[in-house]
């Protein structure tokens, strides 16, 4: 594949990842505001929101290094869909569980996107981007692992709180 095509694929992937991270923020921030009885989840979400902010900066640095801009339209579109997804769970009696399942799926989606971007970066000789992309990938994998490791405890706590009439929200 010609270098220009690899570059095009790489830039498109970076723009998509930037929009994906903005979508992640639009999903996590409303969740964090609604959590009251699950401080361990709130703490982890807050941490991952900060990581996501840093991931966006890393992606912008890579795009800047390529003299490319992010895609504002993609950012807006995916942020909107993320907000709608987060809103959809607020009416569920098991909101905390649904959010956890959706977050687990999304973290794995993000990890796959970064693995793909790393492959393109290596194929195109974009070594300067690799370290930043690996940092983003490691954070996504760590969050997915935390969600996976905590689903049983979260479900157990949900059942115990539900038994006494408590919920995930105010």
Return the CATH class.
Mainly Alpha
CATH fold label: Ferritin
Total DSSP E strands: 0
Q: What's the average pLDDT? A: 89
The helix content, as a percent range, equals over 70%
List low-confidence stretches.
none
Write down the overall geometry.
elongated
How many individual domains? Answer: 1
Structural class: mainly alpha
Query: What name goes with the CATH superfamily?
Result: Ferritin, core subunit, four-helix bundle
Measured by DSSP, the beta-strand proportion falls in under 5%
- What value does the Rg take, in angstroms? 18 Å
Helix tally equals 5
Query: From the coordinates shown, what is the CATH architecture?
Result: Up-down Bundle
The SSE order reads HHHHH
Can you summarize the main beta sheet?
Answer: none
How many angstroms separate the termini? 54 Å
Protein name: Ferritin-like domain-containing protein
Keywords: Coiled coil
Organism: Rhizobium hidalgonense
Coiled coil: 42-69
Structure in words:
The protein is mainly alpha-helical and 170 residues long. The chain has a single domain, classed as Ferritin, core subunit, four-helix bundle (Ferritin), CATH 1.20.1260. The chain is 85% helix and 0% strand. The protein is built from 5 helices and no strands. Helix 1 packs antiparallel against helix 2, helix 2 packs antiparallel against helix 5 and helix 4 runs antiparallel to helix 5. It is elongated and about 60 Å long.
What layout of secondary structure does this protein have?
Elements: H1 3-34, H2 39-65, H3 72-89, H4 95-124, H5 127-163
Helix pairs in contact: 1-2, 1-3, 1-4, 2-5, 4-5
């Amino acid at each position: 594949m010609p270098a220009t095509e690899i570059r095009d694929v790489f830039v498109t992937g970076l723009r998509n990842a930037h929009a994906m991270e903005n979508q992640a923020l639009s999903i996590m921030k409303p969740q964090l505001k609604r959590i009251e009885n699950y401080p361990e989840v709130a703490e982890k979400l807050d941490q991952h929101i900060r990581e996501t902010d840093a991931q966006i900066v890393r992606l912008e640095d890579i795009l800047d290094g390529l003299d490319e801009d992010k895609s504002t339209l993609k950012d807006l579109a995916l942020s909107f869909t993320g907000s709608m997804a987060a809103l959809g769970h607020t009416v569920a009696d098991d909101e905390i569980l649904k959010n956890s399942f959706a977050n687990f799926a999304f973290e794995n989606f993000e990890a796959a996107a970064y693995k793909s971007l790393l492959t393109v970066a290596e194929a195109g000789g974009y070594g300067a981007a690799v370290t930043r992309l690996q940092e983003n990938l490691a954070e996504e994998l760590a969050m997915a692992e935390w969600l996976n490791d905590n689903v049983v405890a979260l479900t157990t706590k949900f059942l115990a709180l539900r038994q006494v009439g408590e919920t995930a929200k105010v």
